Amino acid sequence: MLVLGIETSCDETAAAVLQDGNRLLSSIIHSQNEIHSRYGGIVPELAGRSHIERIHHVVADSLEQAKAKIADIDLIAVTMGPGLMGSLLVGLNTAKAMAYASQKPLLGINHLEGHLLAIFLQEKVEFPYLALIVSGGHTDLYRVDGFGKYTVLGRTRDDAAGESFDKVAKMLGMGYPGGPLIEKKARRGNPQAHKFPRALLDRNSLDFSFSGLKTSVRNLVQKQNGQQAQLSVADISASFQEAVVEVLVTKTLRACAVESLSRIVVTGGVAANGYLRARMTSALSQKGLSGYFPQPVFCTDNAAMIACAGFYRYRHCPASPSNPLTLDANANLSFESGLNP
To answer: What is the model's pTM?
Structure first.
């Protein structure tokens, strides 16, 4: 079974062809980092325009790399939310047009389900498992009992972890995207140089909060600049990263204990962070728990995970494929509101 996946939820234009759920025949990702870096963050209008310019080339290149034609495709899976509405509409309308013209079945996929199942591109993890989605827009804990069976255990009450990385990097004059830049700078810093807050860490809640941490970094930077003190960007980066990772690891272990789960999948763009991977792996090993991480290329936004989620949803969930004429984007799509119309 060949699935064409299309992903344009934010600032990556991506398409992939996946065979039988685990054999990736092609994966094309066009990054917009060069466009948004000059602004220190994503500009939605520019993201949408870039998707319009690139989507047809990316889809065509993906089919060519897979040595396939649209007639060979058995299912089209496309991200329908959550994300930036302007970006979502580009990929969704492209997929709708292709499905309608070729009479192929179409599935609208929740972007978060793609992250939850991205690990299946590498290996099959036994259910149930705990999943930590940590990215630029989300920091959520889920219990995964099967395909289409997801329970929210905790989520961020304000900023996502990845968003905080980007904003702190901008404060420190590093540029965008901030995650890789802070991780690189932190390698030369002292993670104990500054004691930044760990919000909600001393409570039983499985929710996250990073706005106070971001504010604490800003206050430190402003204070030191005002005193003309020598500012160690490496120390601030290391201390900030340590604060984020400590919260993520602690909350994950707490959720495992609450839900009596022994398998943990860490996914999303921030899951590509080497320091988080090392700390999480060590903590899980000490508790006798099994940890799984998608390859970094499958952590950041990609169409392979959307094709993967489409494959398993088509095979294991009773809902029929969507009508290309009625499928619509939902910028705030959640599992609670349903995965499909």
So the answer is: 0.94
